[in-house]
Task: structure prediction
Amino acid sequence: MGHLARRTFALAALSVLVTAPGAAAAVGHRPRAAAEMRGVWLATVSNRDWPSRPGLTAAAQRKELIAHLDRAARDRLNTVIFQVRPTADALWPSPYEPWSEYLTGTQGRSPGWDPLGTAVQEAHARGLELHAWFNPYRIANHTDRSRLAAAHPARRHPDWAVPYGGRLYYNPGLPEVRAFVQRAMLDAVVRYPVDAVHFDDYFYPYPVPGQTFDDDAYDRYGGGFSSRAAWRRDNIDRLVKEMAAGISRVRPGTRFGISPFGVWRNASTDPRGSDTQAGVQTYDDLYADTRTWVRSHWIDYVVPQLYWHIGFAAADYAKLVEWWAAVAKGTKTHLYIGEALYRAGAAGQPSAWQDPVELSRHLTLAAGYPQVRGHAFFAAADVAADPIGAMSRVITDHYGGAVKPPR
Result:
């Protein structure tokens, strides 16, 4: 999740900004679940969490990676969500896409070792699940194609790539693009016994007012749809369904999970939506019908990014947990909650996030909903730093012993 730029945008886009925390749930110890998700995202885009900088030796990179895995095990977490395709590149020897520049500083240059292979092996040795996290359509956090590796697919197929909002993306409206990105991602699933495939919230890019990029693709392929929005949603639905089928085909038993932006639609837009006033709605702005994916069990788990505090007027954590629990009720899709550890103690955040107990309150509140089967924390560098002890408080209050993730 990349993640930082998108979160900054998403938070700014909320139509109401309230800094005063609302009434918080009381903190207390809860009985240890027989199985629950205790996950952490390990982001590699822009060297967010790992490696600490590009160009480290293979030994130094490996040491840093092992430290993150050791910390997760020590904190009684059970799942690491490892970003292995941050920008149409690879953290394994892919025949489809170049080595990531975040390893060596030069896209396409081998780091001299296999990060994904090592991560899977070492995670499993520590009793951790390893979920391989892919970004389907992002090519670069810039628009200069000449900066891509010479053999990059976006240079060999320039019609596949579109600039938008200062970044370069594969066009989700092209069937050949959808087929290619699936082949590129499934290569890792074929090669390694990953426990799950994971997408975050990037499908169609977050909207930039006054910009569009897919007129030609819509003219070619959108004729059978009532609107461009319906056609775009169908493109993303096809990606999700086809990817799920591909995973099942190449490695049966491997799960498929998605971590969307936390608001599907506001109730003011759709009576089925949440009691929120968010400026971004995944159904309308990212063309991701996340509610249908859960209700129809197209995915095995969903981790909505509920990156707001309890009582936040525009997007109240408590109201969103209740909404997502109702969506997941009666389905086979597991519900985990994405937690904004990165906000705890951060400068400029509302007062609720300066309280080290806020995140622990989240887990206490969510425990009241049987559909919530765990949490994942963004992100690994923040687990390591834990500046105000928010993660330590979560561990003390809720993670008294080791448990396995749900299956």
In short: The domain at 3-398 is CATH 3.20.20.80 (TIM Barrel). The chain has one domain: 3-398. The mean pLDDT is 93. The longest helix spans residues 228-250.
